[in-house]
Amino acid sequence: MGTVTPRSVLRYESWTLQPDREPDAEPVLYAMQCAVDGETSPASEDFTEPQNWVLRHCGQNPSHHTYREIITRPWRAWRQT
Questions:
Q1: Contact (CB, 8 A) for 38 and 63
Q2: How far is the C-alpha of 36 from the C-alpha of 68, rounded, in Å?
Q3: Which DSSP category does 25 fall into?
Q4: Which of 13, 24, 40, 66 could disulfide-pair with 35, CB 3.0 to 4.6 Å?
Q5: Per residue in 54-64, pLDDT tens?
Q6: 3-class DSSP state for residue 4?
Q7: What are the DUF7848 domain coordinates in residue numbering (predicted)?
Q8: 71 and 30 in contact (C-beta within 8 Å)?
Q9: Which 8-state DSSP code applies to residue 59?
């Protein structure tokens, strides 16, 4: 039987993941999407803008009653020491 040589080294590490709340983090953005036709509001840091879009959209499309909230939140990960 031949000699066995290691081909890789595995190192297990602990990582942490959490929302990025640093001063230079990207802003949290909100948008709404119509589940009927897929149209999406513009993204905004202020949730009232997507809400207003929904009210206008359902006013123009009275049969569109279902919407999805889309939140884009920055996250950060780092290795624990």
A1: no
A2: 10
A3: S
A4: 66
A5: 999 999 999 99
A6: coil
A7: 5-80
A8: yes
A9: H
Beta partners for residue 37, in sequence order: none
Angstrom distance (rounded) from CA 28 to CA 75: 10
**C-alpha to C-alpha distance for 21 and 44, rounded to whole angstroms:** 18
pLDDT tens figures, 12-70: 889 999 999 999 999 999 999 999 999 999 999 999 999 999 999 999 999 999 999 99
Give all strands (DSSP E) within 20-81, no chain letters.
29-34, 67-72, 75-79
For the question of whether the overall pTM of this predicted structure is more than 0.90, the answer is: no
Rg of the chain in Å (alpha carbons):
23
Q: How many angstroms separate the CA atoms of 10 and 14, rounded?
A: 13
Residue 19, H or E segment? strand 15-19
Percent of the chain as helix, strand, coil, to the nearest 5: 15, 30, 55
